[in-house]
From TrEMBL:
<comment type="pathway">
    <text>Polyol metabolism; 1,2-propanediol degradation.</text>
</comment>
<dbReference type="GO" id="GO:0046872">
    <property type="term" value="F:metal ion binding"/>
</dbReference>
<dbReference type="InterPro" id="IPR008300">
    <property type="entry name" value="PTAC"/>
</dbReference>
<dbReference type="GO" id="GO:0051144">
    <property type="term" value="P:1,2-propanediol catabolic process"/>
</dbReference>
<dbReference type="GO" id="GO:0016747">
    <property type="term" value="F:acyltransferase activity, transferring groups other than amino-acyl groups"/>
</dbReference>
<dbReference type="Pfam" id="PF06130">
    <property type="entry name" value="PTAC"/>
</dbReference>
<keyword id="KW-0808">Transferase</keyword>
<comment type="similarity">
    <text>Belongs to the PduL family.</text>
</comment>
<keyword id="KW-0862">Zinc</keyword>
<protein>
    <recommendedName>
        <fullName>Phosphate propanoyltransferase</fullName>
        <ecNumber>2.3.1.222</ecNumber>
    </recommendedName>
</protein>
<keyword id="KW-0012">Acyltransferase</keyword>
<keyword id="KW-0479">Metal-binding</keyword>
<comment type="function">
    <text>Involved in 1,2-propanediol (1,2-PD) degradation by catalyzing the conversion of propanoyl-CoA to propanoyl-phosphate.</text>
</comment>
<dbReference type="GO" id="GO:0031469">
    <property type="term" value="C:bacterial microcompartment"/>
</dbReference>
<keyword id="KW-1283">Bacterial microcompartment</keyword>
Length: 241
C-alpha cells in the first residue's frame, strides 16, 4: 500500500540526490565570491512564470498497473526545475458519467501517492468538483479513474486544482524577505489583461530556481503569453522586485 508523502519533502529528496550525483550545483548564498545563486542573472533573481497545464503524478505501483509490469516513467522533456520532467507516458482521466480527458501527461519522478492536477475548466469538463489544494494535500478530495494501455486504476482521492505557488532557493527567499510557507503576490502586466494574483505559496529549498506556477485558466486570464512585465513581492509589503 502506497504512503502519501508531502510534495515539498519529495522535491527536497530529489534535489539532494541530484546534487550528490554531481548533475546539479547547489545554490550558493548571496554574496559568495565570484558566484551568483542558482538562476540569478546580473546579480538578482531571474523570475520565470510558467503555466502548469493539467497533468498527473503516479506511484511506482500505478505506473506498472497502467503501463505494464516492470514499466518505469520514460523522460521526454526536462522541466525548468532540475530533476523533474514530463514523461513520454500519458493516461486517460475518466470522471463521473464517463466524461474523460484522453491524454493527460504524466510528470516524473514518481511519488508516494498518485495525484491529478486540473484547471477549473478541466474539472468542469470531467464533472468533478475538484477543490483548490496545495500539491500533496489530497485528503478528502475527489477521485477518478486512470486508464493506461495495460490497465486502469481507481483513485479514491487525489483530484485537485493546484493552488498557485512559487519555487525558489534560499538566496531568492533572502532577496524577497520570505521563508518557506509564506505567501506572495504576483503581478502580471499585459495589454488590457493585467492581473494581480494573491496567495502565491512560497516553496523554498536549497536548489530550486525561481519559478511561479499558475494553471491554464489563470494564464489565460492574464494573457501571460503577451505579458510585458511580471513582478513578485511579499504579501502586505509595499516594496516590489
Amino acid at each position: 500500500m502506497s504512503l502519501a508523502v508531502d510534495r515539498s519533502r519529495i522535491e527536497s529528496l530529489v534535489r539532494n540526490a541530484i546534487r550528490q550525483s554531481g548533475l546539479a550545483t547547489a545554490a550558493p548564498s548571496v554574496g559568495s565570491a565570484g558566484q551568483q545563486p542558482l538562476g540569478w542573472v546580473d546579480g538578482k533573481p531571474n523570475l520565470r512564470v510558467s503555466i502548469s497545464a493539467r497533468h498527473c503524478h503516479l506511484t511506482d505501483e500505478h505506473v506498472e498497473i497502467l503501463f505494464g509490469r516492470g514499466s518505469v516513467l520514460e523522460p521526454d522533456k526536462d522541466l525548468y526545475q532540475d530533476g523533474f520532467y514530463a514523461a513520454k507516458q500519458t493516461v486517460m482521466v475518466v470522471g463521473p458519467r464517463k466524461r474523460m480527458l484522453p491524454s493527460v501527461r504524466v510528470l516524473g519522478p514518481t511519488r508516494g501517492a498518485s495525484q491529478v492536477e486540473l484547471a477549473l475548466t478541466d474539472s468542469i469538463s470531467l464533472g468533478i468538483n475538484a477543490p483548490v489544494r496545495h500539491s500533496g494535500k489530497i485528503d478528502g478530495t475527489p477521485g477518478c479513474v486512470l486508464v493506461g494501455p495495460a490497465g486502469s486504476v481507481q483513485l479514491e482521492q487525489g483530484v485537485i486544482r493546484a493552488a498557485r505557488h512559487v519555487h525558489m532557493n534560499y538566496a531568492d527567499a533572502e532577496y524577497y524577505g520570505v521563508s518557506n510557507g509564506d505567501m506572495m503576490q504576483l503581478s502580471v502586466r499585459s495589454p488590457d489583461c493585467s492581473v494581480s494574483f494573491e496567495d502565491v505559496l512560497v516553496r523554498a529549498d536549497e536548489a530550486a530556481k525561481l519559478e511561479v506556477h499558475i494553471d491554464t485558466d489563470e494564464g489565460n486570464a492574464c494573457n501571460l503569453d503577451a505579458a510585458t512585465s511580471v513582478e513578485l513581492k511579499k504579501s502586505g509589503c509595499a516594496c516590489q522586485h
